[in-house]
């Protein structure tokens, strides 16, 4: 079999067989395919697209290019969730320990920030001593003993995706539904899951700003995951304002701890957390209905069991044993904190969420290039919600910065991100359409 002939077949609109897809992915992984051939394959897929069978085959081949976890001795269902990326989205930090407290295993493989969005892995690295790259057997022990672990993608997990994405990034082939779907799911399916819930963001702070585009992605993800043998459900959720009132790294860890301890209620964050967790508990049979699953998540938070689970996992992965009790002692604090007063007072009717994400990067809380070092202490807290009436001296947020000049620049960016007016707030439903296998009539493609 020749790589150029398989690429020619796809270029001309043909459908690749599973054997041909496996051949290409082996070539990407072992380096026998040149960079030019990988780029040509990506471009052929970009223009010709993939059938459902090709999508599933590509996803499974990418998953199998590296280590795939299995859990033969697990005494609990193994589940996870994936978010397509947002601002102030620290759901994983709250949901994973809450699910563990409800009796499921959550082997979360987290990613870094992408574009204007924050990454869970960057947030976890704001915890002193936290080890996001435990050895595989240590990873298994964490799940067995504590019910969850939060780690980063290693070289052993879906290595074909790592090389393919790097080439897509420099050849203008990132924005294709087929390759996005395979990239996301190859890593999640490598976790050996019994169920997966997908949080597909939509709005000004999301990669998919139009709801119809978000629905198309959600349908593709559910269809391929189900076709690959992993039950999946997706929800479209709103990203027309930050999900939580804090955006950054250390500040989002502190925000999650406050929510876990019950010190602060972030209504939007809690609503999405309960819904995604409720879905997984229902999918695994631990809750008879979605409502009862949501109630179980709420109880794990209200009772303190989720906070205890989070504390245990942080300590087990090398972080401070008393992080939940004394977060201020351990988390980095910015040199300057500056309340941001609005120049126009009245009702907030809209928010440019992407601009807030970019402002955090400008403060040093994200990367312009891969080699950039993140300052975990910077960001925003106390962010006002759409619909809020702002009057002096109430701020629209607080900027955390390295110096006064950067604080003032961050304050200006935050002011510019909010729109004040007298009309109705441009505020969509927090949780939109639900997509499952039945709604798209998918069938297994596993051979």
Query: Count of DSSP helices?
Result: 18
Number of domains: 3
Helicity, in percent?
40-55%
Strand content: 5-15%
CATH topology of the largest domain: Pyrimidine Nucleoside Phosphorylase, Chain A, domain 2
How many E-type strands? 13
What characteristic shape results from the CA principal axes?
globular
Mean pLDDT: 91
Question: Strand count, sense and closure of the main sheet?
Answer: 4 strands, mixed
Description:
- With 447 residues, the chain is an alpha/beta fold.
- It is globular, with a radius of gyration of 22 Å.
- Helix content is 46%, strand content 14%.
- It folds into three domains: 3-49, Transferase, Pyrimidine Nucleoside Phosphorylase, Chain C (Transferase, Pyrimidine Nucleoside Phosphorylase, Chain A, domain 3), CATH 1.20.970; 79-153 and 182-326, Pyrimidine Nucleoside Phosphorylase, Chain A, domain 2 (3-Layer(aba) Sandwich); 333-421, Aldehyde Oxidoreductase, domain 3.
- Helix 1 (3-11) packs parallel to helix 3 (35-48), helix 2 packs parallel to helix 4 (52-63) and helix 4 packs across helix 9.
- The model has no long low-confidence stretch (mean pLDDT 91).
- Strand 4, helix 10 (211-227) and strand 5 form a beta-alpha-beta unit.
- It has helices at residues 3-11, 18-30, 35-48, 52-63, 91-101, 120-124, 136-146, 159-170, 177-189, 211-227, 250-261, 267-283, 290-302, 305-316, 327-330, 353-365, 404-417, 437-440; strands spanning 79-83, 106-110, 148-152, 195-202, 232-238, 247-248, 336-340, 346-351, 379-381, 389-390, 397-401, 418-421, 431-436.
- The strands form four sheets. A four-stranded mixed β-sheet has the order 1-4-5-13, sandwiched between helices. A four-stranded antiparallel β-sheet has the order 6-9-11-7, with helices on both faces.
- It is built from 18 helices and 13 strands.
């Amino acid at each position: 079999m020749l790589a150029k002939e398989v690429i020619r077949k796809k270029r001309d609109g043909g459908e690749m067989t599973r054997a041909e897809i496996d051949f290409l992915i082996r070539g990407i992984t072992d380096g026998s395919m040149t960079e030019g051939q990988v780029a040509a394959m990506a471009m052929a897929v970009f223009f010709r697209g993939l059938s459902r069978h090709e999508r599933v085959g590509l996803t499974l081949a990418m998953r199998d290019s590296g280590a795939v976890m299995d859990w033969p001795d697990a005494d609990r269902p193994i589940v996870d969730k994936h978010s397509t990326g947002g601002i102030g989205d620290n759901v994983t930090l709250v949901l994973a320990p809450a699910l563990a407290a409800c009796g499921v295993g959550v082997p979360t493989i987290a990613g870094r920030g992408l574009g204007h969005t924050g990454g869970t892995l960057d947030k976890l690295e704001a915890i002193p001593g936290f080890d996001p790259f435990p050895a595989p057997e240590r990873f298994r022990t964490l799940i067995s003993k504590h019910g969850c672990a939060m780690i980063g993608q290693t070289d052993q997990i879906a290595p074909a995706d790592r090389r393919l994405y790097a080439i897509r990034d420099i050849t203008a082939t990132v924005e294709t539904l087929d390759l996005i779907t395979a990239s996301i799911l190859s890593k999640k399916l490598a976790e050996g899951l019994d169920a997966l819930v997908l949080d597909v963001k939509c709005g000004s702070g999301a990669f998919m700003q139009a709801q119809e585009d978000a629905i198309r992605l959600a349908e593709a993800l559910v269809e391929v995951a189900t076709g690959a043998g992993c039950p999946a459900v997706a929800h479209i959720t709103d990203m027309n304002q930050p999900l939580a009132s804090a955006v950054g790294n250390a500040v989002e860890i502190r925000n999650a701890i406050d929510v876990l301890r019950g010190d602060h209620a972030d209504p939007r964050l809690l609503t999405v957390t309960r819904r995604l967790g409720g879905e997984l508990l229902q999918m695994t049979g631990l809750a008879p209905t979605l409502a009862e699953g949501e109630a179980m998540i709420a109880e794990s938070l209200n009772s303190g069991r989720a906070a205890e689970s989070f504390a245990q996992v942080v300590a087990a992965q090398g972080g401070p044993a008393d992080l939940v009790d004394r977060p201020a002692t351990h988390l980095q604090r910015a040199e300057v904190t500056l309340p941001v007063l609005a120049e126009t007072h009245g009702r907030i009717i809209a928010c440019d969420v992407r601009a807030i994400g970019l402002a955090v990067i400008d403060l040093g809380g994200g990367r312009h290039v891969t080699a950039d070092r993140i300052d975990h202490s910077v960001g925003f807290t106390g962010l006002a919600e759409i619909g809020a009436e702002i009057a002096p001296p109430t701020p629209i947020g607080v900027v955390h910065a390295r110096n006064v000049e950067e604080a003032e620049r961050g304050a200006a960016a935050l002011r510019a991100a909010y729109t004040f007016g007298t009309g109705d707030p441009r505020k969509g439903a927090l949780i939109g359409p639900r997509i499952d296998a039945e709604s798209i009539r998918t069938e297994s493609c596993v051979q």
